[in-house]
């Protein structure tokens, strides 16, 4: 099948909707826009937390509870959309989730009660998470394993701009309007995703490949998936490595601004630099997958992350907050940037053999990532030590275990067998 690479493709006929010969770059970038609603929703309103707290008459720390409320919605929402999309196809769940997201964003924009806001944020997550589940599954439906790794790299190029730009964009909105405008913008972005779904997202799951097992067997199917070694090692290992991102997000302001006294402006630049490193290595990953085995690249990236985390741990143990800031930042940079080599490839391997349950596999993989993120944030609070050592312990623990699981993947695993 030929595919347009410079513009969004027309909807192909049914017989063309699986296993493209060419990489449909424009279609993949469109999927990146759909997934970007998640990181936009997480990061864009962070600069507004103090003003929101003032309006609601509560502390900023209390208002920050809306962040874990959002993460919880992501965990449970994905577990629903996965089996649902395997049963009914990929299009209907997108309509349902994005409609819920738009409604929830409007609730957040118009409420004057902090608890209603928390409920609205959870509803936002329940709607937004459909994008991550369905797009990963749709890519698995349509592309080969090697193409899937490249596709995830391209998609991250688009969605990866969100965490780089979102905090600055949110701050820009606050200069000209109130925090309500941020949620109105998110509602508009959700509406854009509905239009993209309507006009450019075609069904990728054919009738014969749908999961027709009874809905009551969903839990047993998830359990079977967790026991599948072609899935569990890359999915859980990749999820633990991804936990580094959430540990960093949870501790960055305390470490960089409070401990080292970096200004808010420079903090934004440092935050964006790490995200840019992540995006940059995902693009390098496209080139590498043409020359090396996906598993080899994944293992290299995991080692890069765990070594960087180990150095950070040692620095925190012996130097603490007297450590040279550029050295601390360099360790964090390689920890976060390494995700560009581990996440696309771990996802490609985890989904490669899940033909009839790609949606469930995508959902479970995403839920594992955010569960590790929540756990990583809690892990930070268990160690009453200096901030450098605290982040070093959490990152090294998660990455060490994640790297161990990655190295348990069968080195002779042939992804061509999954096609």
Structural commentary:
It is globular and about 60 Å long. The longest helix is centred in the middle third of the chain and has 31 residues, at 229-259. The model is unreliable at 1-20 (pLDDT under 50). 75% of the residues lie in helices and 0% in strands. Helix 1 (25-35) packs antiparallel against helix 7, helix 6 (91-110) runs antiparallel to helix 10 and helix 9 packs antiparallel against helix 13. It is mainly α. The protein has two domains: 22-212, MFS general substrate transporter like domains (Growth Hormone, Chain: A); 228-418, Up-down Bundle (Growth Hormone, Chain: A), CATH 1.20.1250.
SSE layout and pairings?
Elements: H1 25-35, H2 37-43, H3 49-56, H4 60-63, H5 66-88, H6 91-110, H7 114-142, H8 145-159, H9 161-176, H10 180-200, H11 218-227, H12 229-259, H13 264-289, H14 294-318, H15 325-337, H16 339-352, H17 358-380, H18 387-406
Helix pairs in contact: 1-7, 1-8, 1-10, 2-9, 5-7, 5-17, 6-7, 6-10, 7-17, 8-13, 8-16, 9-13, 12-15, 12-16, 12-17, 12-18, 13-15, 13-16, 14-15, 14-16, 14-18, 16-17, 17-18
InterPro entries: Efflux_drug-R_Bcr/CmlA (IPR004812), MFS (IPR011701), MFS_dom (IPR020846), MFS_trans_sf (IPR036259)
Membrane topology: Multi-pass membrane protein
GO cellular component, one term: plasma membrane
């Amino acid at each position: 099948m030929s595919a347009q690479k410079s513009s969004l493709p027309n909807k192909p006929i049914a017989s063309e909707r699986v296993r493209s010969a060419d990489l449909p770059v424009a279609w993949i970038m469109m999927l990146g826009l759909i997934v970007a609603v998640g990181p936009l929703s997480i990061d864009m309103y962070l600069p507004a937390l103090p003003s929101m707290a003032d309006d609601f008459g509560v502390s900023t720390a209390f208002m920050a509870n809306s962040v874990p409320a959002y993460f919880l919605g992501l965990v449970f929402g994905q577990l629903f959309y996965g089996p649902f999309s395997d049963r009914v196809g990929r299009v209907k769940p997108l309509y349902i989730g994005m409609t819920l997201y738009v409604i929830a964003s409007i609730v957040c924009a118009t409420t004057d009660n902090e608890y209603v806001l928390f409920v609205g944020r959870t509803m936002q997550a329940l709607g937004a998470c459909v994008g991550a589940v369905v797009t990963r599954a749709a890519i698995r439906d349509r592309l080969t394993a090697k193409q899937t790794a490249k596709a995830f790299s391209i998609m991250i190029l688009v969605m990866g701009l969100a965490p780089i730009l979102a905090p600055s964009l949110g701050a820009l909105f606050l200069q000209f309007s109130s925090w309500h405008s941020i949620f109105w913008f998110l509602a508009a972005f959700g509406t854009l995703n509905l239009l993209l779904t309507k006009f450019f997202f075609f069904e990728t799951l054919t009738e014969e490949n749908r999961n027709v097992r009874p809905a009551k067997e969903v839990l047993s199917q998830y359990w079977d998936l967790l026991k599948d070694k072609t899935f569990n090692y890359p999915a859980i290992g990749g999820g633990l490595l991804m936990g580094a991102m959430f540990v960093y997000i949870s501790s960055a302001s305390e470490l960089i601004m409070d401990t080292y006294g970096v200004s808010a402006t420079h903090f934004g630049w440092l935050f964006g630099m790490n995200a840019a490193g992540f995006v940059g290595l995902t693009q390098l990953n496209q080139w590498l997958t043409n020359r090396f085995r996906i598993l080899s690249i994944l293992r290299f990236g995991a080692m890069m992350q765990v070594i960087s985390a180990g150095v950070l741990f040692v620095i925190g143990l012996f130097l603490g907050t007297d450590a040279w800031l550029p050295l601390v930042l360099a360790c964090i940079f390689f920890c976060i940037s390494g995700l560009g080599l581990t996440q696309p490839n771990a996802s490609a391997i985890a989904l490669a053999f899940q033909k009839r349950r790609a949606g469930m596999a995508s959902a479970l993989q995403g839920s594992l990532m955010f569960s590790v993120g929540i756990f990583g944030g809690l892990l930070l609070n268990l160690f009453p030590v200096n901030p450098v050592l605290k982040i070093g312990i959490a990152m090294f623990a998660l990455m060490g275990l994640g790297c161990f699981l990655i190295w348990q993947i069968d080195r002779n695993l042939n992804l061509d067998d999954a096609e």
